[in-house]
Specification:
Blueprint (H helix, E strand, L loop, with lengths): L22 H10 L1 E5 L4 E3 L7 E7 L2 E6 L5 E7 L4 E2 L1 H6 L6 E4 L3 E7 H10 L3 H25 L2 H13 L7 E4 L2 H8 L3 H13 L3 E4 L2 E4 L2 H7 L6
Antiparallel strand pairs: 1-8, 2-7, 3-6, 3-8, 4-5, 4-7, 9-11, 10-11
Helix pairs in contact: 5-6, 5-8, 6-7
Keywords: DNA-binding, Transcription, Transcription regulation
Protein name: Crp/Fnr family transcriptional regulator
Pfam family, one: cNMP_binding
Length: about 230
């Protein structure tokens, strides 16, 4: 019986957008990408900056956000490996539509627009993955708009915590996020979010440890957010 060995891992392993590329094309792409590191709190790019690169996140987490004229911030999404972002500006050549900040120390690969467009021309199938990525972005924004209509602030806080917990099945889930950042993600004032967190803590759903939130009852948070049980 012939056994097929798995493909060796490389810097793009797990990145869905590039999963269908032949090994030679992947290696050319990796060679063209520039490794970058970011410290916690450092901006990767700022709204209205030139959209000159696609970012492949390899380690850490990044908040993508918009800033109001008053200085208030609204977090649109939190990216984690192996997420890819910055594709909107890369495709249309326009300025960045949002800013991105490292929530913790991060490492990433930056692919220039020129290298990406060359890849698209030589491997048109990659556009399917790009369209799926854009579709996912539109769905996230649609869900976020619906949350503002149908959920009260505690419900949005609960849903944000559930999303940050991801697919973890652990009995306790630690989320490295302070309450100011959580307020930006849930779309409320810090005081109101603190009240929601205090209410959840009194019910035994979570506890706070400095900049950390430790979720101890994810199922209850899911129900408070109006999400289906798993």
């Amino acid at each position: 019986m012939e056994m097929r060995l798995p493909e060796p891992a490389d810097a793009l392993t797990g990145v869905e957008m590039f999963a269908g590329l032949e090994p030679e094309a992947r290696q050319r792409l990796i060679a063209a990408a520039v490794p970058r590191t970011y410290r916690r709190g450092q901006l990767l790019f700022v709204e209205n900056d030139p959209g000159e690169s696609l970012i492949v996140l390899k380690r850490g987490s990044v908040a993508v956000f918009r800033t109001a004229p008053t200085g208030e911030r609204a977090v649109l999404s939190v990216m984690r490996p192996p997420d890819v972002f910055g594709e909107v500006s890369l495709l249309d050549g326009s300025a960045r539509s949002a800013s991105a900040e490292a929530l913790e120390d991060c490492s990433a690969l930056a692919l220039s627009r020129g290298a990406f467009m060359e890849l698209v021309h030589t491997h048109p199938r990659i556009l399917d993955a790009v369209m799926r990525s854009l579709g996912g972005l539109i769905r996230r924004l649609t869900d976020q708009n619906a949350d503002y209509v149908f959920l009260d602030l505690p419900g949005r806080v609960a849903k944000t915590l559930v999303r940050l917990a991801g697919e973890s099945q652990a009995p306790m889930i630690t989320i490295e996020l302070n309450q100011s950042q959580l307020a930006e993600m849930a779309g409320g004032s810090r005081q109101s979010v603190n009240q929601a967190i205090g209410s959840f803590a009194s019910r035994g759903w979570l506890r706070t440890e400095g900049r950390r939130i430790v979720v101890t009852d994810l199922a209850s948070l899911r129900r408070r957010a109006g999400m289906a049980d798993r």
